[in-house]
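Lab notebook page, bench 4
Experiment: in silico fold of construct C2
Operator: M.H.
Input chain length: 502 residues
Purpose: comparison with the prior construct
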Amino acid sequence: MESLEKSLEEAWNDTRKLFCYPPLENPVLTNEINTAAINMEDHLITINSNFVEYVINRALSNNVIIDPKVILKGLLHHEVNHYMYCPYDFSTLLKLEKQIGEVANDSIVHDISNYFSDVVINLDLMIRKKRKEVSVIYTHMEKRHPLDILLCGLYQDITKDDFKIGPLDDDLKDRLNKLKQIDYFDKDNWGVSAKIFAYIVKDLLEKEGKNDMLNIDNWGASSYSDEEIEKGIEEIAGNSDISDFKEILIISGIDYESLPEKVDTLYYDQQSKKYLMNVSSVKFKGNSFDSNEHKKYEISDSYSTIDVFNSYGKFMPGFSQVWKSVDQTTSGNIDAVPDLVIALDTSSSMINPKTNLSPAVLGAFCAAKLYLDKQSYVATYNFSSEVYITEFSREREKIFDNLAFHQNGGTYVDLPVLSSLVNSAKSKADLIMITDMQIDNYDEFMNYLRSIEKTNRINILWIDPTPNTDLSSIISKNFNVYKIYNQNDIPKIIIGECGKNG
């Protein structure tokens, strides 16, 4: 009789051909897992040899002889289809679990997500790829949990193959009819489909428990590499409300402390990447920069700094190579982008960026990244009842953390601290201030703005301005005050103004 290892080799050759030779390692047999699994970190598929024997023996008890290669092919097809089709990447898994979490208890969200993904890939194998090996596995596995019976009933109804489930009771028949209405191949609407799926099956898990559940594998954050998790979180952060983003992380069991950036910083960092940004240069004495060294791409780095050729076309934290700029001192005037001071009002009258999308904070992030991407230095001045500053640097994490920090107090501008920060620039810096101007020392602050000297350009974004306020005494060629009636305009105004800098 052919060895199981030899059968696995033949089954793997069949699987590679079916999926157009994916870049995966050769699978291995082990008894350290329940059935089969693919590790998304090293892309290795492992199969429990005892499980293969279990399915063969179950079939024999029904007088059916199965070649081990059939079972191995079914398991390999199943695992590779998870890798190639659903959930495919970590961001898809997060989206599915977010939708499921809207109708199911947190304790069963992950299980429902696994079942939905299994249905998608199994039907893809059975119907679109016309491969039945995985059907053999489900046919001969013992089905004791109502949900397993229901889903095998779904496979049986759609494929017209016998999955040996016997007659369904009226309750399962009703659920089956509802499950048949879902389009499992509509990838763009998997989130909605998963939510409907969860609504139909959730109480079966809540009532019956999970001990007898039939799952070939189990997907979760632990299935993916740190780099793929970071990439998935990055994508979700750029396409969600901040409250939804945080809820997705909680449902998926991701610890905020394990993230490469603080959760609020990460969110606004990714939101700012939606904007195409450029900042114009001016002539002044200073340093030029030469990009002649590499470093690993980090989640906060600009895409524009990635060296595509040395990264083999991949945009992934910890793998892609980015150019690292080195100061080159020059004499005389150079054509470059000046340094920047961002003064951000974080008082209680401003939107709290931790609970709602704050256009003010998003605009501040956009401004910081505009200048940092041009190798300028950025200082931040976070003011409310207290003042928190970061001095001129290119340390993105410190800069972004201070911009995302919300004090939620009163509004007072400590002018000596602001003046000292502005004057610490090596040459004239730009100043951007975002505030609703409900400043306790308003008159003193306005007098300071009239007298400020060590700046190249000043832009004040005044949110919900007081009607009929005369600002003509301070507005000049290099001093603009934008009256903001719609806060969503803030990022666009900042980007537009920076683009015509100088």
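Observations: The mean pLDDT is 84. The chain has three domains: 4-221, 282-335, 337-499.
Next step: discuss at group meeting.
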